[in-house]
Design goal:
The protein contains five helices and two strands; from the N terminus they run H-H-H-E-H-E-H. It has about 160 residues and is an all-alpha fold. It has a two-stranded antiparallel ribbon with strand order 1-2. The radius of gyration is 18 Å and the shape is elongated.
Length: about 160
């Protein structure tokens, strides 16, 4: 996913059709992540035994979510030079998306324009609702698997 992030051709000077296509791709990607986390949570809640959720799936959808926001941040920064301070490269955008998801926020990269701030608001809500649920589920499943292994070794 990270390789695709760096290799995806993104020319901000393309026409409105390209902007619309990118927006659609972003919405589909974020929708996929939210659906994946919801599906995993429902599957775990409906399961007779705890820990049936695939951890790799939760990790993958979390990485996809952060990467989708990094792409959006990068495109907004390229489109409007006053939208973000300190965000010039894809690495800057990925760094910003990860630090926002981790709620670290060093302040070296930040949204300044209204569109950038709006995007970051959506990203923060997404992080709190979807990624926090994913990480909570990851922790729960990992703990259940650890307890199951401990029970199996005691038997």
């Amino acid at each position: 996913m990270i390789a695709v992030y760096y290799l995806l051709p993104l020319d901000p000077q393309q026409g409105p059709w390209a902007v619309g296509l990118r927006l659609l791709g972003f919405l589909v990607g974020i929708g996929f992540v939210a659906w994946g986390v919801r599906t995993a949570a429902v599957r775990e809640a409906a399961s007779e035994e705890s820990g049936v959720v695939r951890l790799d799936t939760l990790i993958l959808v979390s990485v996809i979510g952060v990467t989708m926001f990094a792409l959006a941040d990068y495109l907004v920064a390229r489109w409007g030079s006053t939208e973000f301070v300190g965000l010039r490269t894809r690495t800057d955008a990925l760094y910003f998306a990860v630090s926002t998801a981790a709620t670290v926020g060093f302040g070296d990269v930040h949204a300044e324009g209204q569109i950038g701030r709006g995007l970051v608001l959506v990203q923060m809500v997404f992080n709190v609702v979807v990624l926090a649920a994913s990480f909570s589920l990851l922790r729960h499943v990992a703990g259940a698997r650890r307890r199951q292994r401990a029970q199996d070794s005691d038997s």
